[in-house]
Amino acid sequence: MDPRDHILIVDDDRDLRELLVQYLEKNEFSVTAVKDGREMRQALAGKTIDLIVLDLMLPQEDGLKLCRDLRAQGSTSPPILMLTARGDEADRILGLEMGADDYLSKPFASRELLARIRAILRRARALPANLVVAETARALAFGDWTLDTTQRHLVDAAGTMVALSGAEYRLLRVFLDYPRRVLSRDQLLSLTQGRDTEPFDRSIDLLVSRLRQRLKDDAREPRYIKTVRNEGYVFASPIEMRNDQG
């Protein structure tokens, strides 16, 4: 972790904001805390933010809309840790579908929040150490797609760019570095998010679904990401490594 990473807290609970500011500053973070989407945008325009802790339930614009708007900016937006109330699974699913990098249910322990923040920052700055197979390639081509590993976006056969969230990019890189190999959900979660699965954790399935949508891959007859019953997923398409996109 780099010293003095800047965390932006977006939560309308003033008491919680104050507690988190004190706790994170004590743990050597720089912290800005705001109460809504308008103030969030002002903070993002005026400061360099390394990670956003975003509450789902906000006045006027909720966290899901703000997360979706941020992810529409592609790789230029900071990673997002979504806070959800009461651990509602539907909230977690929606947050991941909108592009959150991770989620944490309220109430939460301060140490758990700190651990999640540090893990997300590590993942945002570097791919896992074992993803080295295609690290020197400028682009990875498969089927109708090319993945630009520098800009971290997809390009289709017509040359149209498709933006990826950080979580989508990491998952696709895992698949491309381990093609035609069955990867379990535990392995995928460990490689992409640096944590173990929890009971009823559906985050990898949701990420796979989102990635299939980006690739226009029919889940009923997938061309790229195939489900292996009771085992996990396998990337089935041949891959070509390139030093450019030509």
Structural notes for this entry:
The chain has 246 residues and is α/β, with parallel strands linked by helices. The chain folds into 2 domains: 6-125, Rossmann fold, CATH 3.40.50; 139-242, Orthogonal Bundle (Arc Repressor Mutant, subunit A). The chain has 8 helices and 12 strands. The strands form 3 sheets. The protein has a 5-stranded parallel sheet, sandwiched between helices. It has a 5-stranded antiparallel sheet with strand order 9-8-7-6-12, with no helix packed on it. It has a two-stranded antiparallel sheet with strand order 10-11. The radius of gyration is 18 Å and the shape is elongated. The protein starts with 5 loop residues before the first strand and ends with a strand.
Concise account of the structure shown:
37% of the residues lie in helices and 21% in strands.
Helix/strand order, N-terminal first? EHEHEHEHEHEEEEHHHEEE
N-to-C CA distance? 36 Å
What's the story with the biggest beta sheet?
5 strands, parallel
What CATH calls the topology of the largest domain is Rossmann fold
Helix content percent band: 25-40%
Overall 3D geometry? elongated
- What share of the residues does DSSP label as strand, in percent? 15-25%
Please tell me the total number of domains: 2
